[in-house]
Amino acid sequence: MTLPCDARSDTSPAATPIRLVGFDADDTLWRSQDYFDAAQLEFERIVGGYVDLQDARVHERLYEVEKGNLALFGYGVKGMVLSMVEAAVAITDARIQAVDLHRIVGLGKELLRHPVELLPGVPEAVEAIAGHYEVVLITKGDLFHQEAKVRQCGLADRFRRIEVVSEKDPATYARVLAEFGLPAAAFVMIGNSLRSDIAPVLELGGWGIHTPYHTTWAYETVAEVAADAPRMLHATSAGEWVEAVDRVSRRARGA
């Protein structure tokens, strides 16, 4: 996709005031990776009944299969479970029994049923920021699952727009900004993933507020973003978002 010119048109730090704040969802607004980590541990227990986990490099081989399948299955629970089934068959040389494959499918169903648990301070921070800026939710993953979590979270009416996308890359953010009629310099994205939430926005000339989660899928940690990138701020929790957005706003105005 060709990036709209207005999304890259102004990259000077004092170009324009912040007008739009974007929020990631999983592990930014609510817990997610904890459940995936627990499912992976259970997957390894199941496969461990057939092979030595260390000798078979089960953790690494599952990750390799997941990465290889992203272009086909996308992100989310369903892609993870299909990759688990494929990896289990390969790792065990097709010795895994149907009952254990059924257990792996059950792991996915449990993930899809998990209730949404907002992280501490999130409702108050989103409410405060929405009182001064337009806000948008941008999340990726399985459409049905993400829509269900948005419905359950209790925050949907705070966002002017909710985007569930297949990938969070510069082209996706450029499209969203073009539809809002905004240059990238007027946008700040808050999220836990350097790869998906911060790097693409910085590339366009926007701003990022990185809020690391205590556990992150390895794929989302791979990004070429300097720790001292001038357009990125760090916030340890939702309780710091309001101040961080204010700091970005001041920098954007050249104050």
CATH architecture classification name of the largest domain? 3-Layer(aba) Sandwich
Oligomer state equals single chain
Strand order of the largest sheet: 3-2-1-4-5-6
CATH class of the largest domain: Alpha Beta
Main sheet summary = 6 strands, parallel
Could you characterize the architecture of this molecule?
The protein contains nine helices and six strands. 46% of the residues lie in helices and 11% in strands. The chain folds into two domains: 5-30 and 116-253, HAD superfamily/HAD-like (Rossmann fold), CATH 3.40.50.1000; 33-113, Putative phosphatase, domain 2 (DNA polymerase, domain 1, Orthogonal Bundle). The longest helix has 16 residues, at 58-73. It has a six-stranded parallel beta sheet with strand order 3-2-1-4-5-6, sandwiched between helices. By secondary structure, the protein is of the alpha/beta class. 36% of the residues are buried.
